[in-house]
Each structure stands twice: as structure tokens, then as C-alpha cells.
Amino acid sequence: MTGNTAVDLAISLGGVVVLALVSWMLGGWRTVRVDAANAAERLALDEPDFAAAGWMIGADGAAAAATSATGRETVLVFRIGDGLASRRFRHGAVGIERRGLTLVFRVNEPSRREVHLTASSDAQAEQWLLQLAGQRL
Amino acid sequence: MNFPDVVTLAVPVFVLLILIELVAWRVTGRGRYETRDMAASLVMGLGNQIAPMLGGAAILSAVWAAAYPLRLFDIPNAWWALAICFVLDDFRYYWSHRIAHERRWFWASHVVHHSSQHYNLSTALRQTWTGDILGGILFKTPLVLLGFHPAMLAFAFGLNLIYQFWIHTEMIGRMGAFEMIFNTPSHHRVHHATNPKYLDANYAGVFIIWDKMFGTFVPEDENERPRYGIIKNLGSFNPFVIAFNEWLGIARDLASARSWREVVGYTLGPPGWSPDGSRLTSARIKERWATVSATEVPAAAE
Hints:
heterodimer, A: elongated, B: mainly alpha, 0% strand
């Protein structure tokens, strides 16, 4: 690496830091809350042929899940910054376990190992787990 | 004629323009910025500057140095030659870019640029860490063999990249007659969109005429706002995940491949190819969209 190259990279790195700071100061660090409306909108955009039978909306706004009317599939909608992403899977294809109030979906991808869906009560967590377990039967 | 490293020279201008767009976003409400997304894009851009130093630039230079003595014509380093080189390189860009979308091996590098759900000037800098060696050898060497000096070619491509920076914005609307020949923010918004009607469109770098010539041009529809990102949006802002996610996906698929057909399909098939057709290629997404649209139209008409 030459001296000039080092200076060029230092300028670039300085630019990254300055821009990130300015963006943060301007209110750019934003985290969306997943709710029934935006989850359904995301589902309609990403999976237009998926007919949702019922929604499970996470109490912490981090994720939501929908089971299909056919009973064969589930869609997860989760937040990534101020955007949403979705994953559709056949029942049984993704491991689901309960940790307290949280249902953990092991999607096992490089960009996201797990998606957490948090219920508001023990009863709701149990009900969701049964609902999703029913999907896997 | 000397050919400076125009991209490096342009970095301070990039930073300044992003700053202006950030402020404009807050003032006007047009466009969208998210700090972590923007930082990830910028780090990808920084990595794109560093990655060639790990050997890629030397390999590419060696290949071009070997190819140049075999050139068909002695093209001088003159302004007229640079103009021709710029146009031919843009034509080359159209095809290499199109192949980067249509063949998974090349998509694994290029997907980085499309992995943001935002469309702003920082997105322009979200570039691959892995794609400059093979793509450079395969797609740019023919121009060296034609007779363009490698330094001129690198300069022309640098100008092309700089042109493409400013079109990554939602701040600029339609641009009238300019759009007939040149790639614009409107045309390129379509290219970055995941809406089924916008998929596989507008591959141009500078001249949109290539898309019009080869049937891949789609104009922006005022009634259908582009949704940016990729079909399966990433769940992370980690630059290493962004850089290598698709490569890991290829490795995982190859580990499960049961035949040479599957090996070829997973690497050189279209993104989303799978042996049983259970995944979505862009062609299947368009089919599904057409099917859903067809069933919705009668209902909407009632």
C-alpha cells in the first residue's frame, strides 16, 4: 500500500464516519415496529399468493407470523432497521422452540440465524406454539 | 494522455453530495435514509476500494498486460478513441450487468449492490468485494484485445461509475427528453425495484438505448412506486454478511447437489434456480404475479 493509497482510504473512512454521524444526528437511526398493517402489507407484496388464516403479532414489535389458510405454510415478517423482510416456509421446514414468552424460529440463514416472536403472556405463547405445532402435524 | 483514477478523485464529491441529500431528505421528506443501512453501504464501498489490493487488481493487470500485445488494432490514446471506448465499454457494461442478474455466479457478487431496501446516493456505493476479477477478465478483456489501452479502459469505466452515482436518488423525478437516450434516476429506480413488473429491466450504465435495443426497457409507472431490495431481503446490516451471503448460499447448495446438472444449475442457472422448482426465479415471480393479477381483476371490477 502506497502513502497515497493510505491517504485515499483514510479520506474514505473519514467520509463514512462523518456521514454516519450526520445521518444519526438527523434522526436516521430508525427501527420500525411490526404491526398487523405493515406485516400484512409486506406479505401482500412479497407473497401475493399466500392467503393468511391468522396473524401472530409480536408484543415487542420485532416480528409477526402468519399461518396459511391451507394449513401447510407459515410466513414470518421481521424488521430490519426501518424495513421489513419476510420468509415463507413449509410446516416442519423450520425448527420452532419456546424460550419463556419468546418463540424462536431457527431460520438458519447467514443473514439471520433466528427470528424471535414474543408473546405478551404465557398463555398466548402457548397458544401460538400450539397453533404453529398444528401447522407441522 | 494521462488517465487519472477518477473514482478515487470523486470520493470527496460523493461524500458532499450524500451530505446534501441527507439534509434534503430531512427538509423535504423525499427519499429515505436509515443510518445502519447507509453505514453498511458506505463500508461496502470502502471494501470495494480495498479488495482489489488483495491481489485482484494485480491479476487483472497481468491479464490485460498479456492481452494488449495481441490487440487487433493500434488505437491511439486520443480523445476520439476515448469517446469510442466509453460507448463500447457502456455496451459491454449493459451485457455484463445483464449477465450479473441472470446467472447466479455473477449475481452472488452483484446482489450486494441491490441488497439495500433504500434507494439513495449511498446505495450507489454499496459495491461488491468479490466481483471485479472474473468479471473484469471475461467482459473487459475483449476491449483490450480490440486495441484500447488498459489505462484508457479503466478511465472510461471510472467515468461510467461516476455517472451512475447520481442516478441513485429519489430526489429527482422524470427528466423529459434526456431520458430517451440517457440512464436517469427514474430508469434506475425501476432497475432496483423488486416489483414483478420491474424485474429484469433497465440494465444500462449510461445509455438507456441498450435496453431499448434489446427489449429490457421498462419505464417507471407513476402508479406503481418501486419497492427496493431483493426478493428475500437480508436480515442483517453486517457488511461481511452482505458481501458473502449469496456465496454461502451457493456453497450450501453445492454441498447438497446430487448431480452435475444440479451443480451447473446452482452456479450458472438464474438466481432462485432449484432442481425441483421450489424456489422463485424472476421468471416464476412474474408468472405468479400475472396469475394473481388475473384473478384479482374480475374481483376488482365487481
